Amino acid sequence: MQRVVMIDALFADNYYIALKRMLDATELRHEALAANIANIETPGYKRIDLPKNFNEEFAACMAKGNAARLPAPTLVPDTDAPTQRLDGNNVEMDKELLAMSSNTVQYDTLTEFVSNSLKQLKTAITGQTQSS
Fold this sequence. Notes:
The protein is mostly helical. The chain has one domain (2-126). Helices cover 60% and strands 3% of the residues. The chain is built from four helices and two strands. A two-stranded antiparallel ribbon has the order 1-2. Helix 2 (14-38) packs antiparallel against helix 4. The radius of gyration is 19 Å and the shape is elongated. The two termini are 31 Å apart.
C-alpha cells in the first residue's frame, strides 16, 4: 500500500507534471509542423503552431511552483507569419524544417529526463541498478 502512495506522489510531483506537459506540447507542435509541411501547396492555408506566449505562461506557472496550473497545449493560426505567395499560403518550407528539427531535439531531451526519473524510481523500489 505504501508503494502505491509513493508512486502516486511521484506522478503528482511538480517536476513530473511539468515534464509531461512539455512532452504533450512538443508532440502537438510536431503534429502542427507536419500539417504545415503537408499543406505547403494548399492555397490559402495558414500555418499553425503553439501560441507565441506558451513558453512565457509555462515559465510563469513554474516560477510559482504550480505545475498543475500549466496551460494545456493548443494550436492557433500563426498570425505573425507573412503571406509571401500569391495564393495566400504562408508556409515556408525551410522555416518549418528548422522548427521541426529543433522540436525533435527538445522532445528527445524531455523523454531522456522522464526516462531517467523512472529509472531512479525503479532503482529505489528494487534496490538494483540497471546495467547499460
